[in-house]
Amino acid sequence: MKVTLERNHLLKSLGHVHRVVERRTTYPILSNVLLNASDGGLQLRATDLDIEVTESVPAMVGTPGTTTVPAHTLYEIVRKLSDGAEVNIEVDGAGEQMAITSGRSKFNLTCLAADGFPDLKSGDFSHQFTIKAGALRQLIDCTQFAISSEETRYYLNGIFFHTMDDGANVIMRAVATDGHRLARAQVNAPEGSQGMPSIIVPRKTVAEVQKLLSGDDDDVAVELSDTKIRFEVSGVVLLSKLIEGTFPDYERVIPQNNDKQLTVDTASFKQAVDRVSTIASDRGGKAVKLALSNGLLEMSVTNPDHGTAREELPIEFEDDGFEIGFNARYLLDIIDQVKSDAAIFMLSDAGSPTIVQSENDDDALYVLMPMRV
What we know:
The protein has helices at 7-17, 71-79, 133-143, 203-212, 266-276, 328-335, and strands spanning 2-6, 32-38, 41-47, 51-57, 60-63, 65-70, 86-91, 97-102, 105-110, 127-132, 158-165, 170-177, 181-188, 199-202, 219-224, 228-233, 236-241, 260-265, 287-293, 296-303, 307-314, 322-327, 342-347, 354-358, 364-368. The protein is α+β, with helices and mostly antiparallel strands and 373 residues long. A hairpin with a 2-residue loop joins strand 2 and strand 3 (41-47). Forms a ring-shaped head-to-tail homodimer around DNA.
């Protein structure tokens, strides 16, 4: 194999594919990136057996061929080469060594035969559609923070996607929960997605797709089945297994009768929570207490080891006063998603979950479980 190409093109593609490669693996071939040189250029492919990323880069191919080399090492070599430099890649006749030369720099990497590189076969896809990058980013950004990291509840380790008819439109929903908070976002369902199977996209896949999204008007081609999903965006193809399991009935978690409305300035509320939570105890679950009365919110934290913090905020609240506690970190995660100047809290009582939304925005909804304080 003999290839010549531009450093920046190679670096961009390696940046996309090398991220899925685990740094520690029991199978040496999984530490490598597959390089396939042909008349069409140089194709790069990497996998961790759950996700596979493929991208082609323009190149002058002197001798076609296929091999694999350590992905992270190759990425670091190319990253440290001069901007705009020409890179020459050549594999010896035995296929055991790859020489990488650029200017006065030369590196030799040990190759592993490409025939041992795994292929995450896609199979047949039941649904194909195209969604705008901006819409997909909105679904991910609004829900990603609530993905559970508890491996025993593996079916919560991703974002749940499905379509439904809400009476006026067919919508696509994304939902994530870790049992303490729930995030739900929706957009108009793209043409072709109606009737798609309900799927759970793993956390790592979500993060990789999010990094590939650029301009809001870019098209993202999506193909899916009950077990796999394939994204193609800006020439990068990401194929991933889906989480096999049943996502809980999230509608049962969303309270329907919360009739106490709290309206507060989003920026002021966020800053106040951040300030008083400075002394909150991890042992106490980072608890912050909200005492609501007509026109005033008193926020307080008590830490037996460090002391207390207290702050008052003007609010719009016309019901009988009461107190409720929340985990400060979970509260900040949710308020970070509120894009309007005012945040709306719909409450019931101190022991019931609370709904949080942006003002005049029904496309995103958050549910937060209270704490005893």
